[in-house]
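Below is the data:
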Amino acid sequence: MAVDDDPRIREVLEMLFAMEGIDIAVASGGEEAIKILEREGDNIDLLLLDIMMPRMDGWDVVKALKDRGWTNKLLITMLTAKGDPGDKAMELEEYVFDYITKPFDPDELVRRVKDFLEIMDAAK
């Protein structure tokens, strides 16, 4: 799943992964992501999560996932324009697998996501 408040980013991610045959759910914000995970969480292995979003930022989403006990079922990767994770990240850093900075190279992003999904498959 990709969570980003920018519709252009969501569209690019959907196209990139569709071309690779990778199913992807998208959410425009944290609240929507939580709702999708409540419905389809068993089918989602990886979360590409923007940090800077209105109302519920990426760190709020990570905290909500931690509070629900979902962080052990998801590989969380922050997809962000922000180089420094910030103070909010300190207590939640251990739940994040990786950071990918924007603007991202599409080929590298796809390669890394495929690598992440292989890790998740191997862990099952």
Summary: The mean pLDDT is 90.
